[in-house]
Structure formats: structure tokens, C-alpha cells
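Subgroup meeting minutes
Present: P.N., E.W., G.H.
Scribe: E.W.

1. P.N. recapped why we're keeping a running log of single-chain structure predictions: easier to compare across weeks, and new members can see raw inputs and outputs side by side.
2. G.H. added today's entry (373 aa).
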Amino acid sequence: MTSKERVLLALNHQEADRVPLDIGGINNTAMHSTTEKAIKKLYGLKDNGTLIRSDEQLISVPDQSVIDFFNIDTCSIYMRENRPWTDNKDGTYKNMWGIDLKLNPDGYYYNMVGHPLENVEDIEDLDSWDFPEPNEYMIEGLSERIDANKDKCCILEGFRECMFGIPSWLRRNENFYADLVADPELSDALHEKLLDGYIKWIDYVMPRIGSGIDVVKFADDLGTQQSTICNPTTYRERIKPFQKKLYMHVKDKYHKPVLLHSCGAISDIIGDLIDIGVDAINPVQISARGMEPEGLKKRFGSNITFWGGGVDTQHTLGEGTIEQIKAEVKKNMGVFKPNGGFVFTQVHNIQPNVPIENIMAMWEAFKENADYR
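Output recorded in log:
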């Protein structure tokens, strides 16, 4: 059985030979570049270089040697931005969205320090900002990557957080959150502009490389540790309609399943996500309120695939003992894997604080509990 077949069976809520494994198939299941480098050095893996597409997080698109070492079932087909970052000559950089970023003092990631639409007051002011135009630079080399990984589940990555994250980064969080309730006309106008831009992206990319794409991934972090960021009613009125149009465009026109990354306590809106065409959710933040594996599987397991939830990265993976990590992996897999609908990965990216022996313990426990037959 190929990796591609294994993942597609999981998305179809069927049991394969084993649970599929994803490490680095998307922007939120990967390793920090320093961690990947350390693993390659420790285990003598071929170093084909470090490929970073998530510049803010300095997360690696997995090296082929790492994919082979862990026997990963996924392959990240990661679009880059439509141009390189611009050096502002003051210690900050500007990305294609017009957002300014500055490297954190620890050198591990970049912080947003400038927001191009934060001073917008009227709908007409949105005309000062243009959605980035798609171009060949964004997808350069991706056809070759697809051809080299035809047996893997190839996931189109790079659309970012379309309808909640990007508008909050453009407007600045507090302004965008206020717009949702105090200025819905402005909020809707920005969302319409983003929707038009993203559909243009999709219709540019998919005819060029879509035949080799198995899953299209989007993101929108909608949860905190305790609840959704905005209440479910506001979400349903202001965010959900635009997500639905975007996701259904992919499903209706290109017939691809949709994977959504959304952190936090989102159990109150998982039914809504199913309603708008989401086939799988990630990272399944099991440490957040209402995100306990047993409840999620019972309530939603027949209608959505859990792409994550394998082991908690907030505490267990970075701070736990080998025995605690293995026990948690075994427990969570026992809940999520029956009847398919489960792709194993840790909850979010593996950060530099995670000891390599803990990563290996997670992987060993996965292998011990992955088989269906």
C-alpha cells in the first residue's frame, strides 16, 4: 500500500494497513529547522540542505532523508510568497502582504511589528492595499517535487490563515476583532477582497500543478486555550460564510479534500467546519478545553478526520519522560484510530526545546501502535 492510498483511506474513514504518519506535510506538523539539522547530524542522514518556506517560524519543509528515515506518508507541496522579503534596513523585513517582521532575540522566529491596514477607517481605504498577485515564482520547482513523491500524499500548502489570521495581521489583532462586532461592513469588505484574491490564487495554481495534489490545506487559528477567539455566533456571521465559499470552490471545481489547521478550543464550531466542507482538522489541540480525544471521536469521528492529537506538544513532548510520551501516544492512538479518520502527528510543530530522544520516543510509540492488522 502506498502512502497516498493510506492517507486517502483515512480521509474516507476507512482502516488501511496502518495509521498514516505526517511529520512536516504541512506548516503545522513540522520541525524547527534547528531540530531537523540536529537529527540529520545525530543519525548520519544525508544533508540535502534546509528548505524553509515558513520564514516567520523558521520551520523546515522536510529533507528527503528525513522523510525516508521516519517513513513519513506525506509530502509538503509548499508555495512560497510571490517575492522574497524586502529588507527595510532597520532590522525589520517586509513580506508580500506588506507586514513588517523582526527576528525574536532568541533567533527562533519572527514577530510582526507593522500592519499595513491598521489605520484604515473606511471601506474606501482598503483600496490602498492590493492582494499579492500569483506568479510562477510561487510554484517554481513544485512540479518536480510532486513527480519525485508520487507515492506520497501531496498536500498543497502556503495559503496561510485566509479569513481570520491574515485580516488580523493586516489590520492588527485588536482592530480586526473590533471590526467583527463594531464595523461589520468594513470586516465584510476586507473578507470579500481576500476571498477574491485567494480564488485567483487557486485558479492560477491548480491548473498548473493540481493534478498532483491530493489535499489542499488552509488555516485559521480560531481558538484559545479555553474557547474560540470570538463567540460562535460572531464566527458564523462574519467568518464562516467566506470560509465556505473558499473551501467549496476547491471542492466543487477541483474535487480535492480540504484540511484546515485551527488551534485551540474549537469544539463548539467543529460542526460548522464540517458543514462548510472541511474534511480534516489539525492540530487537534488535546490540551485545550473541550478537545479531549474521547469526546471528539464520539461526537465528530464519523464526519471529520483528526489530523493530529497524537501527543501534546505544550507539555508532554517537550517536558515529559520517555514513559509519559509513549503512554500518551498509545492512549490517544487507541481513541482516534478505530474506523479510520485519523492521521498521526504531534500537536503542532516540534520546537527547539524538544529533546531528540523525546521525538524518537514518540515515533517508536507510533510504530508500536499504528497497525490495523
